[in-house]
Amino acid sequence: MWQKAAKVNEVAEGGAKVVEINNQPIALFKVEGAFYAIDNVCHHRGGPLGEGALDGTVVTCPWHAWNYDVTTGECQTVPGVKQKRFPVKVEGEDILVDA
Ligand code: FES
Q1: What is the pLDDT of residues 71-89, one digit of tens each?
Q2: What is the DSSP letter of 77?
Q3: Domains of the chain from N-terminus onward
Q4: Which of 4, 29, 60, 88 could form a disulfide with 70 if both were Cys (CB 3.0 to 4.6 A apart)?
């Protein structure tokens, strides 16, 4: 179900914002004008991915530095591990997430 997650101006280019939808924390990222949403809770030990550094489409978990591609949710540190990814769309000034 599509739900409002944030305003477009709340997520900076190359940055992130953590939002809560249905009591689950979701990390929103903006890369080259496009928005991506993945589970904020790192598969490893629960680190906050939305607080990690973003390099291109790859975010580094701030706790133990696992890398994830935010466009797919795929972990680059441990092949086969994948963060849940959510569809994102923009309507006017709103970022909507299908969660
Ligand atoms: S909790 Fe994310 S790398 Fe360990």
Answers
A1: 999 999 999 999 999 999 9
A2: S
A3: 2-98 (2.102.10.10)
A4: 29
Neighbours of 13 (CB within 10 A): 10
- Choosing from 44, 58, 60, 83 the residue with most ligand 1 atoms within 8 A of its CB, the one to mutate for a pocket test is 44
- Write down the pTM of the prediction: 0.96
Which pLDDT value is given to residue 81?
98
Retrieve residue 77's tokens.
């540190």
Phi-psi region of 78 (alpha: psi -120 to 50; beta: other; left: phi over 0): beta
10-53 confidence digits (pLDDT tens): 999 999 999 999 999 999 999 999 999 999 999 999 999 999 99
Specify the ligand 1 atom closest to the Cα of 77: 3
Mean per-residue pLDDT for 60-79?
98
Spatial contact of 10 and 35, defined as CB atoms under 8 Å apart: no
Q: Which of 38, 45, 70 to mutate to test the pocket of ligand 1 (most atoms within 8 A of CB)?
A: 45
